[in-house]
Design a protein that fits this description.
It is a single chain. The protein is α+β, with helices and mostly antiparallel strands. The chain has four helices and twelve strands; from the N terminus they run αβββββββαααβββββ. Strands 2-5-4-3-7 form a five-stranded antiparallel beta sheet, with no helix packed on it. It has a four-stranded antiparallel beta sheet with strand order 8-9-10-11, with no helix packed on it. A hairpin with a 5-residue loop joins strand 3 and strand 4. Helix 2 crosses helix 4. The radius of gyration is 36 Å and the shape is globular. The termini are far apart.
Length: about 260
């Protein structure tokens, strides 16, 4: 038989070791609470890109001779905007292709990269918010003298034309005679619409400068010469009387900075 004292000691030791085991057992882990990530609010900035005002002249001969001979050419041109590797600037990657529509299929192409924006004060560009690609495709008019407006610099012409149009159409006299829808005002409005829509063309050195508006993207208008009065595909970098991009006008662009 177990004495009463021994039984008491045994019970006491069992209780002691039970408490120790409970104390040494790992505590139950608290549930993990996932905190929502803080929202980052980025401010959009609208910037003005530098227009391409110096002619871009392709001189690579892909086929045929260097003369389109009034057979088009069919012209394709595009611009893709990209952020530079150091994120300090925006580069316009410009592509051009022109091909005669028959005969010996004279053909040329060219590509150029041009910086059209540089961030101020050492800032870095995080993202371009607007569309980065514009393109046009059209059949060049044959060289000649079908005149819409004379100009050696289509960008200056468009700026001056816009000011003149606004003066005529927007700031009319209060008199009924000046407010009337006259033939002169209708002609001015029609010409303004053609320029805005990119269906106009100018004359430069006897060549048609086609002012063409893409359907979308960062470019407002391309100014392009297809057929010329003489040899069309240049064998040098002189833009006179050659197939070329005369200029490119850009829209304002929304970007964010880092």
């Amino acid at each position: 038989m177990i004495s009463r004292g021994l039984l008491h000691k045994t019970l006491m030791l069992g209780a002691f070791f039970g408490m120790a085991a409970a104390a040494s057992a790992p505590a139950e882990a608290a549930p993990t609470v996932k905190m929502p990530k803080p929202k980052v609010f980025t401010m959009a900035h609208t910037v003005k890109l530098s227009d391409i005002q110096k002619p871009l002249v392709p001189n690579e001969l892909l086929g045929g001779d260097r003369e389109f001979g009034g057979n088009g050419p069919r012209v394709d041109s595009s611009v893709t905007l990209a952020i530079s590797g150091d994120q300090r600037s925006i580069v316009a990657k410009i592509r051009f292709h022109a091909k005669e529509t028959k005969s010996d299929w004279s053909e040329t192409r060219g590509s150029w990269d041009r910086v059209v924006y540089t961030a101020p004060g050492g800032k870095k560009i995080a993202k371009i918010l607007d569309s980065t690609y514009s393109s046009v495709n059209f059949l060049s008019k044959p060289a000649g003298f079908q005149l819409l407006a004379p100009s050696e610099d289509y960008l200056k012409f468009l700026q001056t034309f816009q000011k003149v149009t606004e003066a005529v159409l927007m700031f009319g006299s209060p008199t009924a005679a000046m407010e009337a829808n006259t033939p002169e005002k209708r002609a001015m409005r029609d010409m303004a619409n053609r320029v805005i829509q990119g269906t106009a063309y100018l004359i430069s050195q006897g060549n048609h400068v086609h002012v063409v508006a893409p359907k979308s993207g960062p470019v407002a208008t391309f100014a392009i010469v297809g057929d010329t009065g003489g040899p069309d595909i240049s064998d040098d970098l002189n833009p006179k009387d050659d197939t070329r991009i005369e200029g490119i006008r850009f829209k304002p662009l929304r970007i964010t900075f880092k």
